[in-house]
């Protein structure tokens, strides 16, 4: 996108330089036209130089035609230059809008990521707490199981003794 802006700027500068040259030529032609008119005025006073006056008149008409063509060309180039400037401005606005949209999107995604990181940390804390509770409950159950087994063993011993005592009686 930057390359197209650069190309447009170069084209704009090139056309602007051409437009300046046309203006200089127009000024030169205008100056020449004024000189020719002055020359024509002096020649009309001097009747003996009528033929050169006629040539200057033709030259003046040619230069006037050229000046008119150059002026028209200059107007067209100025219109084209304005179109290019407008297009460049629109492209720059579009680029800046897209850039702002992307910044907003990145900011939103960063905030979402931050929230997810907080959620993960909270879940990890809860998981650690549950793991500790589970270990404690397992230890308690292991102790209770040990006691239960001891009681079962003692109960069997007492039963054995009772059976033994019954047999002895």
Report on this structure.
This protein is mainly alpha-helical and 169 residues long. It has one domain (3-168). It contains two helices and no strands. It has helices spanning 2-45, 50-168. α1 (2-45) runs antiparallel to α2 (50-168). The radius of gyration is 51 Å and the shape is rod-shaped. It starts with a helix and ends with a helix. 1% of the residues are buried. The mean pLDDT is 85.
Outline:
By secondary structure, the protein is mostly helical.
Number of strands: 0
Q: Structural class, please?
A: mainly alpha
Mean pLDDT: 85
**Which band does the percent of strand residues land in?**
under 5%
Radius of gyration: 51 Å
Low-confidence stretches: none
Tell me the series of helices and strands, N- to C-terminal.
HH
Bin the helical content.
over 70%
Count of discrete structural domains: 1
* End-to-end gap: 109 Å
Organism: Oreotrochilus melanogaster
Protein name: DEUP1 protein
Keywords: Coiled coil, Cytoplasm
Subcellular location: Cytoplasm
